[in-house]
Write a structure and sequence with these properties.
mainly alpha, 2 domains, 11 helices, 62% helix, elongated, Yip1_dom, membrane, Yip5/YIPF1/YIPF2
Length: 312
């Protein structure tokens, strides 16, 4: 017993000497003895503990900085994410709009819950400028065939085409999205697309009209109508197949009415572009044909009748 007390006293003396050398050291005695039965002495300084606390605080600050708040919709950073796409993604979505397939959903397999505004914006802009340019080229080519046709640049067609295309690509999806949101409250199983997904579907569906408008430069009326019908059928089929997964959960009359409205509005857009930008050319004769001038009716022609000569 005395030997154990002596050993403990010796250990405390060693700890006291150690603390004398390092005043900032701290000692702790654990409830369980070490294998040698010695007292556990923990050395440290206030600076080291403060450094650990600062490290923890810096880690928390880094975590908080990592969780960035979502910017408001009125800021530029909010819309910047919708233009963050590469060329391969845009081409893949254009391919999906040109080759619709019933078993492949455009939203699920092409968009993958990441709608973009880059593709729809430039598709609408390209279609508007192509419509205006080809509409003017039609007049130029017609003038070369018939000199009596007078051509003057029609710059207003750019404005008309831009307003028509962009209003269609934004207002119609907005109305469709609002209708689906309203039907969602009635039919709980319906899961409508977001507004940007709907805009993305409509924007990419217009791509097929860009090469079609270029082909309308061919001055063959029946061929122009054939290209227009094929483009309309392909684009409308892409719209119907993309919207069908969220419409089929509704009642049959509502689904039929909605799909009929979608196809009808799409047909009116294609028909309006064809009739307005490629309308029959009016013949404007700048100079009238030369006409024979007639003498005034009061003018009397001299008599040419020969006089009778009498012989005596």
């Amino acid at each position: 017993m005395a030997a154990a007390d002596e050993l403990t006293f010796q250990e405390f003396e060693e700890a006291t000497d150690l603390l004398a050398k390092t005043p900032d050291a701290a000692t702790t005695r654990s409830d369980q003895l070490t294998p040698q039965g010695h007292v556990a002495v923990a050395m440290g300084s206030d600076e080291s503990y403060g450094a650990e606390e600062e490290t923890e605080e810096s880690d928390k600050a880094m975590l908080l900085q990592g969780e960035k708040q979502q910017p408001g919709f009125w800021t530029f950073a909010y819309y910047q994410s919708f233009f963050d796409v590469d060329t391969s993604q845009v081409l893949d979505r254009i391919k999906g709009s040109l080759l619709p397939w019933p078993s492949h959903s455009f939203v699920r397999h092409r968009l993958r819950n990441r709608p973009d505004l880059y593709g729809p914006f430039w598709i609408c802009a390209t279609l508007a400028f192509v419509l205006a340019i080809t509409g003017n080229l039609t007049l130029v080519l017609a003038q070369r065939r018939d000199p009596s046709i007078h051509y003057s640049p029609q710059f207003h067609k750019v404005t008309v085409a831009s307003i028509t295309i962009y209003c269609y690509a934004w207002l119609v999806p907005l109305a469709l999205w609002g209708f689906l949101q309203w039907r969602k409250g009635i039919r709980e199983r319906m899961g409508p697309y977001t507004f940007l997904e709907t805009v993305c579907i409509y924007g990419y569906s217009l791509f097929v009209f860009i090469p079609t408008v270029v082909l309308w430069l061919i001055p063959v009326p029946w061929l122009q109508w054939l290209f227009g019908v094929l483009a309309l059928a392909l684009s409308a089929a892409g719209l119907v197949l993309a919207l069908w997964p969220v419409i089929r959960e509704d009642t049959r009359p509502a689904a039929a009415m909605l799909l009929s409205t979608v196809v009808l509005l799409h047909s009116l857009l294609a028909l309006g572009c064809k009739l307005y930008f490629f309308q029959p050319l009016p013949l404007e004769h700048m100079a009238s044909l030369p006409q024979a001038t007639s003498l005034p009716p009061a003018t009397l022609l001299p008599s040419t009748l020969p006089r009778a000569i009498t012989t005596s």
